[in-house]
Write a structure and sequence with these properties.
This protein has 73 residues and is mainly alpha-helical. Helix content is 95%, strand content 0%.
């Protein structure tokens, strides 16, 4: 087999994948995975922040209720 033909056979699958955009799909999937991880981290932070705000609101309501009970005695 001529050397050129062997070279072409070796590179043909890569050239085919590159031509149809499949190579870029792999790169974008990897970037998308990192993006999903970042979104999950931000969602967890948001959940924690909302939970802290709810806890503070419940505590404030409890304090107001105690103050109202104390004032009515």
């Amino acid at each position: 087999m001529p050397v050129r033909f062997r070279w072409l056979l070796a590179w043909l699958p890569l050239l085919t994948l590159h031509g149809c955009g499949l190579a870029e799909t792999g790169a974008s999937a990897a970037a998308g995975g990192m993006s999903a991880a970042e979104e999950a981290r931000q969602a967890k932070q948001t959940e924690q922040r909302v939970q802290q705000q709810m806890d503070a609101a419940y505590q404030q309501a409890a304090d107001q209720r105690k103050a109202a009970e104390a004032a009515s005695e």
